[in-house]
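Write out the 3D structure for:
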Amino acid sequence: MADIHQLENKLRSLKLNGMLDTLNLRLSQAQKDSLGFIQFLELLLEDEVQHRANKRLASRITKAHFEEGKSLEGFDFSFNPKIPAQYIHDLATCRFIERKESIIFYGPVGVGKTHLAQALGHQACRLGYSVLFSKAIRLLSDLGGGRADGSWEKRLHHYLKPDLLLIDDFALKEFTRSQAEDLYELIDRRYRSSSMIVTANRSPKDWYPLFPNPVIAESTLDRLISCSHFITLTGRSYRTLLRPDKALAKEVATM
């Protein structure tokens, strides 16, 4: 027994926590199944590899700042057959990230834009990509704060660094001049070098008037739109499926 404790201490000092967690289990398995030394060691090493992979995944998900743990498995495509399920599952391979392409989801409130964007973001994390999620208004407020305190370049780098940037609720209202300039810098620097997923209630053709300067609008949106997959979501609000009491209340109110 003392030998096992010594082994545990050595594993702990080497930070081989995956092997440490399963050592007793693997010892019992080796005895029960008459495993050879190589088989026993292979199982322990696989436990360590999986433990480290899980830690890296958990770290990527934490750094992504998702609002919720959404997944494609948790999305009910049958609720709204108009949503192109196969196309979205194809995008979940994340080859669009390898090709430095982007995705634009647009449609009315509640049809699943944010859920699908975050689900693709989670899938990207699983495949080893770095991801960052942010509401558009929060992103622009952060960059605006950088202009005020001299940390603009540092804050911009925060949004340039990840392989995949998710911008939720884009183009909700008109942009100020400085916001438009910040968007141009962000999109221009990510253009053809990394990917984005953008969700919006408005169609991209309706984004142009929201910019105070038409030249900035054209330059910014041309870069974003030219390398993007467009997915229009229509149909019933997905939130009525999650909160049927709200849907009933709305129906009663309109009677």
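Residues 246-255 have pLDDT under 50 and may be disordered.
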